[in-house]
């Protein structure tokens, strides 16, 4: 009854238009006569934002009122992409908006394209967090995301003369989706020293004094669920100089410059997203970011809990905190510090609360990605936290000693402190010890964790602390939003859009696999999507590609373990093969467009070399009149979420070809199959479970297995290495200068020929090109290809993040949905 009908709740195009015009004329102070596409975007966004705000407030009030357990998802990355299209579809008013905008002379697609991507993430881990937020809201879980409000998201990539150049991504001007909460601030302390004082009862009290204070300011972003009124909150912290007396003294003393310098130093904390994907570099500013964000979030969570006046023992019944990788591990230490230093709990009681509260998700087994912080660095920045880490370690090692009294080695292996010079804090170990559940992101990955990295911890804690939760993607963005035509066709066949919130319903599509008319419609949609991508390619690169060719796509961060080098060597092999063919032979060839996109970390030289080679191959092949449409090579500049939405629906085949055992899960593999693309891949990450679900006749698997990798590397190391003869020819072509100065690519070749071929490019090459031959053959039979495509989509129900979130909720968080709809 307290919920009144609001003017902003438009239900028709006329009502939407009224809101749009109101915002353009008043909020934006523009006249309709000089309203350009950007103003139309802003007005539309504001109209939808108004709708979200109402449900957002209501959701938060209901969640506070019912006072049940909430989930807090701590992630340094949220790779959200654009918000408007998503908001329109989730609210269910995109059609009103389309019609209303049309009346004013705008195409809705052009309006949507005005929005800057929110690119606060590197790749898979950040995008997973964004899909989780969508599913948590859609499933009505009371859940908050906590992250950092970077002034600069992941850099924009430009290709200049074939080389990657990084451009800063300043994205915050006129962002209608964030709400500054200037009244919600937390003072965060750094540096200083610890005083150990005995209180009246004789107990030692630790007080952290001095140092500097930086202020955290909250910025909130509404997260609408699909087909529900639940609108959750993503809270991002921004850093600001604290307005403490210290600064004023400086001003009074006339030290204006140094006061400004302090302010800039404070604001630097949330200035920029670190662009490394899977490489730990141990920079102090990154540690500052981590503590700043953990401390602000914990303070916020504790403040909310304390309002309920419950006993501390009830904290884990009210709060579940999930750690997205080890980046927020300091939250464990911070909660322990709050409980013992500030709230006066005993160590054991506090630690019991802490471990019941946290869950930790691991995303990689790559050793170079495992976070370690040097002890002197932590000592200086967070002196009290280092003491607590040492205490956690002491009690932990005592318990291990008790359990394995005759094993001296295990203590040094599992110690949180690595006894190197300097000593290092191993964050993954701290995260395991401080959590009640630890999970990997695909079955193979979780098994590998248990048998290698975390083996000792399985022996110590037993197998129950370790589990698998296979990743997924949200079908709202990655099917319905990115591929509206396919979503509509599926809805027509299944009698509605219910599959979008229960993806297992897709299995009913199998009834129509042999339906000729349906197949034709299915095929037509793929063609339309390929045309859209072909247009995009022409506009952005100038290259014309033939949309009837086989579109072969690999888009993801550039990394040696993901093996874009294998892909481009395969492309060169194809080019050489075509060049050697007679005109007669060429007639039988399936024309192909190889599309590769992705960013290299700015300091990752080998990844940049791979990008360079791809661009040089592109330049040579695409202008070869002798080859024409038989092969085109396209590098997509600045691959990001909004480009992925154009690319995923347009692939015939996509590549997920990491060295077996190296990719945690992969999630683009799921996006491509959901859009009716087939995949070529190794037995790695979630490819294995995709195969299990869709059937091995519907996927092109190749290459060595994870269980063989160690042995192969060992043999290479001892000189047992034979370069694959086809790959040798590719190398000859590169060395002969076919793609420009061979010196540019020397390191890429020598990493394979001279330095042990760590990623097994040569070992897998023959299997790779043979399998691509099978792809060509299969594509010639379009009927069978379509059957594979439809059958695969029908069997993808498992890979929705709705399933994933329900698994986390049941087996890690122990939270229940709260339906705010009635
Ligand atoms: C990781 C690291 C680790 C070292 C410190 C710096 C830093 C910065 C960013 C990241 C994130 C990259 C890790 C990542 O994206 N992992 C991916 O997670 C996906 C979601 O679970 C999974 O599908 C991919 O296989 C995995 O590579």
TrEMBL record:
Question: What's an example GO cellular component term for this entry?
Answer: cytoplasm
The EC class name is transferase
Write out the GO biological process terms.
Answer: glycogen catabolic process
Q: Which domain of life is it from?
A: Eukaryota
Q: Does the keyword Glycosyltransferase apply?
A: yes
The coenzyme or cofactor needed here is: pyridoxal 5'-phosphate
This enzyme catalyses: [(1->4)-alpha-D-glucosyl](n) + phosphate = [(1->4)-alpha-D-glucosyl](n-1) + alpha-D-glucose 1-phosphate
N6-(pyridoxal phosphate)lysine modification sites?
A: 671
GO terms for MF: glycogen phosphorylase activity; pyridoxal phosphate binding
EC numbers: 2.4.1.1
The cross-references to InterPro entries, in alphabetical order and at most eight, read:
Glycg_phsphrylas, Glyco_trans_35
| Keywords associated with the record | Allosteric enzyme, Carbohydrate metabolism, Glycosyltransferase, Pyridoxal phosphate, Transferase
Quote the Pfam families the UniProt record gives.
Phosphorylase
Job description of the protein? Allosteric enzyme that catalyzes the rate-limiting step in glycogen catabolism, the phosphorolytic cleavage of glycogen to produce glucose-1-phosphate, and plays a central role in maintaining cellular and organismal glucose homeostasis.
Q: Which NCBIfam families does its entry note?
A: P_ylase
Q: Which family does it belong to?
A: Belongs to the glycogen phosphorylase family.
In Swiss-Prot or TrEMBL terms, this protein is called Alpha-1,4 glucan phosphorylase
Q: Which organism is it from?
A: Penicillium malachiteum
Q: Taxonomy-wise, where does this protein's organism fall, top ranks first?
A: Eukaryota, Fungi, Dikarya, Ascomycota, Pezizomycotina
